[in-house]
Amino acid sequence: MDSERNMEVERLYLFLLCSLPGISGKKVRAMRQFAGSYKAAYELDMDEYLKQGIFSGRGRCYGYRERHKDQERLIREYEELKSLGIGLVAEFDMDYPVRLMDLEDPPPLLFYRGGLPRDGLPSASVIGSRACSGYGAGIAARIAEELCDAGVCLISGMAEGIDSAAQRAALRKGHDSFAILGSGVNHCYPMESYDIYELMCAGQGGVISECPVRSAPEPWRFVQRNRIIAALSDVVIVAEARKRSGTSITVDYALSCGREIFSVPHRLGDELGEGCNLLIRDGASIFTCTEDVLSSGVIAKRLSAGDGGIRIKERAGKKEEKTVTSLASSEKIVYSCLDFNPKHIEDIAAQTGLGMATVLRALLCLEKRRLACSVSSFYYRKVS
User: Fold this and answer.
1) Which residue, 40, 61, 238, 342, could crosslink 55 as a Cys pair with Cβ 3.0–4.6 Å?
2) Model pLDDT, residue 58
3) Same domain for 302 and 373?
């Protein structure tokens, strides 16, 4: 009982330290190592940290100097977290994600809504550009669906473009997905992703952040959260990225954690996919099919620990087969003509030899079944 009480006290003071402005997680850990506990770290005089070089100057440790001003409000906020559906997990808790320990500076405290990824399950992130093409979004969705069907847990950042396309596809098929946010867990950013944010908060996976609950989304926070995406993933898959892309930050973090990088090859001259081709040139594994990832070292090892993923994959395959075989003949012909690059309806009609009216009816039917979608006027692509 005393041990539990001590841990709860430590969790509270860790929360107070992490809620102070200008105090990074790395600094919080250094304070604890010097003071011996988070409670002692919070109570220690600022001059002691200045002597040790943990704080580099009085002006740069304003948050710590003024810590008692907001203490009562922060304690109330801490006590209200559970009623708001927000969980806390500290680095000393049993359910703290062990993969994060591969980071040079693992977050000492995580906030979450929904749940946390399980350490024993294989995990992968599907990432890429925010301003992606229909092809990139389609590929990301397909990769996410197939990996999740096989029993792999999806980690991503809920950003517009590739990230949200992958997570939306996984959630649509009933799988769990986890989003790492660059804000407090009560902020949905971007708002266009609210549909998947809501599902994850409700327990179909979860949303996770090291940022205090009140934190607004800021550019520097997204750079920091990328290291958590990388560390929580056994492999990182880049579906589409430009030559200069923020995706490279996540890739660098993943490499520093010893994670394998997969990259989807793109056509030469395709600016939206140039970053993917450069990754392959620099040593990333080529993604040709989902089996490339499933047979990779860590993923294969985790999957072999049980057959749950195989059964899930078999069920999903039968469901997909049933969906396609139930189509009318004209719909099957049009569906077989589609791929993840948008095609104009006239090109589809020319390729299939069907009349425009027949093609349009077939496309409308495929849209209703979520097998195809319109990306612009009279342009259609395959969804799955």
Assistant:
1) 61
2) 65
3) no
If asked whether residues 226 and 164 sit together in one domain, one would say yes
Judge whether 102 lies within some domain.
no
Residue 296 has pLDDT above 60, yes or no: yes
Tell me whether strands 379-382 and 372-376 are parallel, antiparallel or unpaired: antiparallel
Query: Could you tell me if 302 and 362 lie in one domain?
Result: no
CATH of the domain at 224: 3.40.50.450
- Regarding whether 196 and 300 lie in a shared domain, the answer is yes
Q: Are residues 160 and 236 in the same domain?
A: yes
Which CATH number goes with the domain that contains 372? Answer: 1.10.10.10
**Which of 57-71, 89-103, 190-204, 289-303 comes out lowest in average pLDDT?**
57-71
SS3 state at 194: helix
Give the position of tokens 């589609």: 338
The pLDDT confidence band at residue 311, using thresholds 50, 70 and 90, is very low
Amino acid residing at 233: S
Residue 65: domain span: 2-80
Which residue in this structure is represented by tokens 């999957």?
Answer: 303
Say if CB 264 and CB 129 are below 8 A apart: no
The pLDDT of residue 330: 82
Long-range contacts of 38-41 (CB under 8 A, 24+ apart): 38/10, 38/13, 38/14, 39/9, 39/10, 39/13, 41/13, 41/17
Whether 244 is covered by a domain: the verdict is yes
Q: How many domains in the chain?
A: 3
Say if 117 falls within a structural domain.
Answer: no
* Planar angle of CA 71, 72, 73, nearest 5 degrees: 90
Which of 19-28, 166-175, 278-287, 314-323 is predicted least confidently?
A: 314-323
Average pLDDT on 131-138 reads 90
Whole-angstrom distance, CA of residue 208 vs CA of residue 133: 27
Alpha-carbon span 17 to 53, nearest angstrom: 18
309 CB-near residues (< 8 Å, 6+ apart):
122, 150, 151, 152, 303
The CA distance from 20 to 64, in Å, is 7
Whether the Cβ atoms of residue 134 and residue 340 lie closer than 8 Å to each other? yes
Q: What is the pTM of this model?
A: 0.79
* Residue pair 260/285 in contact by the 8 Å Cβ criterion: yes
Helix (H) or strand (E) holding 382: strand 379-382
132 and 256 share one domain:
yes
